Amino acid sequence: MNETEKILEVLNQLRPYLNSEGGDVEFVKYEEEYVYIKLYGACASCGFRDLTIQDNIYEAIKEEVPKCKGVINIEL
């Protein structure tokens, strides 16, 4: 399984949690060891989105893709 497939798998595992809060996440690309995503719904405007990205999404991806340097949310 390559890095992109691992990232997609992690995001799919996190998606039910985000959906339960009224949001969603879309994978955009993995480039130069950074993951680019778009948050949708309630997640896009949530005051805790940076914490969600850093403490949940990034940490989960880092477990599967140790080379990952960070997760960047592309604003809508």
How would the blueprint of this fold be written?
Blueprint: H1 3-20, E1 23-31, E2 34-41, H2 42-45, H3 49-64, E3 70-73
Parallel strand pairs: 2-3
Antiparallel strand pairs: 1-2
Task: Explain this structure.
The chain is an alpha+beta fold. The chain has a single domain, classed as Fe-S cluster assembly (FSCA) (GMP Synthetase, Chain A, domain 3). It has helices spanning about 5-20, 40-45, 50-65; strands at about 25-30, 35-40, 70-75. The chain has a three-stranded mixed beta sheet. Helix 1 packs antiparallel against helix 3. The protein starts with a helix and ends with a strand. The model has no long low-confidence stretch (mean pLDDT about 95).
Q: So what's the overall shape?
A: globular
Q: Helix fraction?
A: 40-55%
| Total of domains | 1
Tally the beta strands. Answer: 3
Sheet-strand content, in percent, reads: 25-35%
Mean pLDDT comes to 95
User: Class in CATH?
Assistant: Alpha Beta
What is the tally of helical segments? 3
